[in-house]
Amino acid sequence: MSEEELITAGNDAEILINDDVFNRTVNSLVESSFSTFTSSKPEDTVGREATYSFYRALVDIVHTLQQRVTVRDEIINRNNSEGK
Predict the structure, then answer these.
(1) Could you read off the pLDDT of 73-83 as tens digits, one per residue?
(2) 31: which residues sit within 8 A by CB, 6+ positions away?
(3) What is the model's pLDDT at position 83?
């Protein structure tokens, strides 16, 4: 990706991170997966692993968005310090 594309991706990611609807949706899904995991039977390893994988996917999405914002900020700071 070009720097311009990385900055755009960071801007888009920041919009999602700061969006109340997005955050409520992710939080609801996390709570639901936690509830499903804690109410599952210990012998239901397939179900528990699927629930855990779903939770990890949600966490990965949020971390990816945060990483895109960080990359954008680093590019902007570097360009500002170089006088671009």
Answers:
(1) 999 999 999 87
(2) none
(3) 77
